[in-house]
Structures are given as structure tokens and as C-alpha cells.
Amino acid sequence: MSTSQPPPDLVGAVFEGHPAPTFVVDGDAGVLAMNRAARLMLGRERDPEPLEVRRAGNALRCVESYGPGGCGRQEQCKSCVVRNAIVHALSTGSVQRAQTVMPVRGEGGDVHMCLLVNASPILHGGSELVVVTLEDVSDVVRLQDEFRRAHQALRESEAKVQDAEERLRETEQRLELAMKASKIGFFDWNLEAGELRHDPRFHTWPEVPNLLRGSFEEITAVLAAPEDLPRLRESIRRDIEEQPATARARAEASLAGQPVKPECRRRTGDGRVRWLRPMGVMIERDPSGRARRLFGTVADVTELRELQERAVRAERLASVATLVRGVCHEVNNPLGSLLPNLSYAREQIVTACGHALEAEASGVRAYLEDVERVLRDAFQAADRVREIVADLKTFTSGDRSGETRCELRAAVDRALELATHELAPGADVEVEIPAQLPQLAASCAELAHVFASLLANAGQATAGGKNTVRIVAQVRDPEQVVVEVSDTGTGIDESVLPRVFDPFFSTRGVGRGKGLGLSVCLGIVRSLGGDIALRSVPGKGTTVTVVLPRQERG
Predict the structure, then answer these.
(1) Is CATH 3.40.50.300 what the domain over 8-136 is classified as, yes or no?
(2) What residues contact residue 179 under an 8 Å CB cut-off, 6+ apart?
(3) Angle at which helices 517-527 and 444-459 pack, to 10 degrees?
(4) Which DSSP category does 321 fall into?
């Protein structure tokens, strides 16, 4: 089998067309030839002839080759990876591979080129030469660096995410514990799909499945007792139909700052009654403004209601002494007239009987007419005593089951009678209540208690000067009546305003106030689905605003 040498022109064509930048150098790193790929890489495509300066550094435009002595003769050249690869390939007779970053002088200034170097020794015409292939891997290295940095950033981000997830789990655990302790749960009601979901872990709605399906009436019937369904449904329907702009305006004007649904009862399977307070907002509406979805919380306020009722009873008991003073005063006035008149009537009857035997009949008639007039006055005084006792019974009654409608004027009149003796001397009372005011969904006895407490506070807010107490009522919207009780007294200092509704807090000083009046009033009004707010300016007076729901139509 014979072998043949490839023609020189074929070898030259292969060398010139090789895709890798390729150089042929001698032992002194002098460049004997470079192919087209090398010229393209180095920007020498139009210079196919050998370089005047044949060293590799000059061919590569190494920055160090421009110094005194040229390529290979600088102190820095001792560490040149390209030159060392050529030297080692010649000395060892084996292929050398290396990677280096070489500073290269370009037309726009010095740049750093990352090169992958392969140095292969060959023997040609008795001379030892080296074929050097170079590959500019600057972009690859840059991408690798970017990848490493991105990978590092990803690992750091993963660590941050893991830390955030851990903190989120801890927060969720704390939130769950807090919600269990406070008996508050979330609910999400898709009104269009007819689905209500809530978290059964918190047992806010006992014995209610975590997913309810059905119509508006069917779902609400599960959530509240029959006696509270009308108020709950009316409140939710109003929010569903309400336009977003109106809803925002009403929320901004709300005294509580949050849309509050009326507290409602729900009976459990064992017959117990739980009081619940739902709070929600409409978070989705269709193009017409009708609500699609209701999201919010529901709190079990049974214990709070019990505490409020105890506070109401405690306030009533604490008010007995004050009431007794007023009652005694009211009773003594008519009795002061009743007893002397009855005594006089008795004496006159005795005298009339004597005259009937001794005097003429006309004299007896005059005596009897006088007796009849005195007895009539006595009966009127006794009737007044009966009215006072009836008012006292109404005020101290805690049964709300029989009274669900109330005329505001009647409640205010009762409150004025009860608070008359709590008004300080010099306190004038002005009442402005429209004649056509709608009925309220409340107990008159409870409203009388509320306004009596507010009148007593307003009437005593004086430092000895003149004080005008005003009661003004108006209809805010079709569903609410607003009553303002204001005075022109001493006012309340701004520092204590946040505490005025706290139980047992009083501005009257130790021994003068029980500190339960406003707290009990707030509990009563909120239980009716309303609210109370207070504003005051020291030296100018105080205004208490009471918002009450009107009686439903029908």
C-alpha cells in the first residue's frame, strides 16, 4: 500500500479555510503565517502578507508588545500564557492548552480579550514549528460570569424567599392563634356563583360547613337567627345595590371608619345563642356597579355582649342612687300637696257632717263643693306619682323583646324627665326634632337611657357659667337618623378623647363619676346597628353624634 503527500495547494487551502484562528510560529514566537479566520479576529483581513514584525504578541496586538524591546522582551512577558504554551509545546513535544485574558490594543482603545489557546508542535523541513489555534471566548466567559452571578443572585434570592416563607409561616401561625383567641374568622362570598367560603378552623360560625351554596336568602338563613334576618339582609342588599361612589362617600363619612353589618344571633344545635358581628366590603362589581363579591370578617362577640349587658345592669344599679334622689324629689312635691289636702278634706267632711245636723242645707252644699275640689287636686297629685313610678319601671326594664319600634320624640321626652335633676343650674335645654321623623328600630326604654346619660353629661359640663344643651335630629339617608346632643360647656381635653368610651373612665374625678355612661351608651347603640362619635373643643363645648337605624318599611 503506497502513501502519497497531499499537494501543497491543498494543504494551503485547508489551512486558509480552517474556521479556527490559526497561526504558525517558530521557536522564537515569530509568526510565519496566519489564516483568514485569524486575520478576521485581529482585524487584518486586508493584510494577507506576513507581518513586518513577526512575533506573536505583535500579531495579536498585545499591549505589552508595544513597549521597549517588543514582544517577549518585557518583564511581563515571562507570564504570557500564549508564549509559555509555545515554549512548552516545543520543549515537551506535546500539545499545550491554556486560557488567558490578554490586553489587546484596538482602534477604540485597549480591550481585554479572553483567549482559548491550543499549541501543537510540528516538524516541517527539519524545523520545529508550532501551530497555534486561538478562540476568542470573551463572550462565552462573560456569559459564564453573568451566569455565575445570576446563579449566585438566584441562590441568595432563594435564601431570602425561604426566609420570607419561614417568617410568613410564623406570621400565619401567630395570626391563627390571634384569630382563635379573638374568635374572628374570614369569609369570601361570591354573590354571582352563590358560594360562601369560610375557614372552619376558627369556628366563628358553629356547625356551618366551610362551603355554602345557594341563593342569597338560603345562605343568609343559615348565618343568622330568623328574628335578625330582616336587618342583616337589608344591610347586605343595600351594599350590593349601592354605587361605588356612594359607597366610598358613605364609608368616608362613617363614624366607625369601617362598613359594619348589624350584630346578629345564631342558634347552635344545642340551643345556645351566639352573637356574631360581620364586617365586610364589596371587592368586585360589574359594569353597572352591582356587587359581585363580598369579603370580610365575622367575629363572635357573645362574651362581649354579655359583658356589655352586665355593664348595662351595673350602670342601672349604679344609677339607682341618682334616680332615687330625683324620684324622691318628684314624689315629695305631689305628696306635699296630697297629704295636707287629704287632711283638710277629712276635717271638712267632719265639719260638714256637724253642720248637716245644725245648719241649713245650703251651707252643707258649699262645704261639699269645697271638699270635692280639694279631693280632685289630691287625685291629680296621686296620678302624678303613678306616672313617675311608671317612668322608673320603664327605665329599669331590661326586656327588649316586646318593643322594636320607637318614636324619637317619646324617647327624648322620657330622657328629659329622667335627667332633669342632673342638669346643672344655668343649663338651658333646646330640642329640635322634625315632626315627620321616621320610627326607629329600637326600644324606647333603651334610647331613653342613652339620651338621659348624654343629657346628664352635657348638663353637668359647666364651670358655673351659662350652658346651652341642644338636641337636634335629622334624617341622614333613607336608612339612618342622626341625633346630635351638644353643649356649650367646658369641653373635654384632647388628650383624653380616645378614652371617653372606655369602661370606668370618667372626666369628673374620683367619686363623682362611675365611668360607665358612655361605654353603656355605645354598647346599646351598636347593638341596634348604629354608632356613636364624640368631638369636643376645650372651653367651647362637646357634641355627641348618635346614628340610629330607622324601622324597616312594610
Answers:
(1) no
(2) 185, 202
(3) 150
(4) H
What are the tens digits of pLDDT across the range 70-109? 777 777 888 888 888 888 998 898 999 988 887 777 666 7
Q: What is the pLDDT of residue 323?
A: 61
Q: What is the pLDDT of residue 177?
A: 79
Let me know: does 532 contact 266? Beta carbons within 8 Å.
Answer: no
Residue 67, number of CB atoms within 10 A of its CB: 15
Please name every residue paired with 273 in a beta bridge, in sequence order, or none if there are none: 267
At residue 469, what is the residue type?
V
Least confident of 39-48, 414-423, 452-461, 493-502: 39-48
Q: In whole angstroms, what is the distance from residue 49 CA to residue 333 CA?
A: 135
The residue count of the chain comes to 554
What is the architecture of the domain spanning 183-300? Answer: 2-Layer Sandwich (3.30)
Instruction: Return phi, psi of residue 341, to 5°.
Output: -65, -40
Beta carbons of 450 and 416 less than 8 angstroms apart: no
Query: Of 3-17, 141-155, 506-520, which range is least confident?
Result: 506-520
- pLDDT score, position 498: 76
- In which element (H, E) is residue 189 found? strand 184-190
Half-sphere CA count of 42, side-chain side, radius 13 A: 27
C-alpha–C-alpha distance, residues 61 and 57, integer Å:
6
Superfamily of segment(s) 397-554 = Histidine kinase-like ATPase, C-terminal domain (3.30.565.10)
